[in-house]
TrEMBL record:
Similarity annotation: Belongs to the RecX family.
Signal peptide positions (record): none
UniProt keywords, alphabetically: Cytoplasm
UniProt GO cellular component terms: cytoplasm
Domain (RecX third three-helical): residue spans on this chain: 110-152
One BP term from GO: regulation of DNA repair
InterPro entries: RecX_HTH_1st, RecX_HTH_2nd, RecX_HTH_3rd, Regulatory_RecX, WH-like_DNA-bd_sf
Domain RecX second three-helical: 62-102
Name of the protein this chain belongs to: Regulatory protein RecX
Keyword Cytoplasm carried by entry: yes
Amino acid sequence: MTSPWQDTPKEPGRSARDDIIALLARREYSASELDERLRRKGHEEDAIDTALTALQEEGLQSDARFTEHFVRSHVARGQGEIKIASALYQRGIDAAMARQALADSGTDWFSLACEVLARRFSDPGSTPAEQAKRLRYLASRGFNGEQSRHALACAFDPSRD
């Protein structure tokens, strides 16, 4: 029995196109993710490339659409641009497309860092160790040093709203 985390082997008679459409019916995928999943299922490289190209021409698979959706959903989760860009790179999205999607999102990263910090902690910390803990938390969420320091200074300021 296969684990739900592993791809099941290719069913006889199912084309790469069929498997791609089945995957895309659940959620958006980058072309790189689809390619990897279909290879693990045992599809031939040429069949995958042909199916992906055809589906991209039909508008059923789009890395730009995937990237836009990915950025939007991860911003909603309170993740910073560094973490989002890294995750996009891991999914085969080139740096230029990731930068463009992050810029087009219109996200105020400083404000988001403040919101994320205020949700997690009730105060900025009274000791350097507590403040460092908050800065590490923001760094782990993908915010850069400038955004993190801004959040530490402003997140708990009642006049910020």
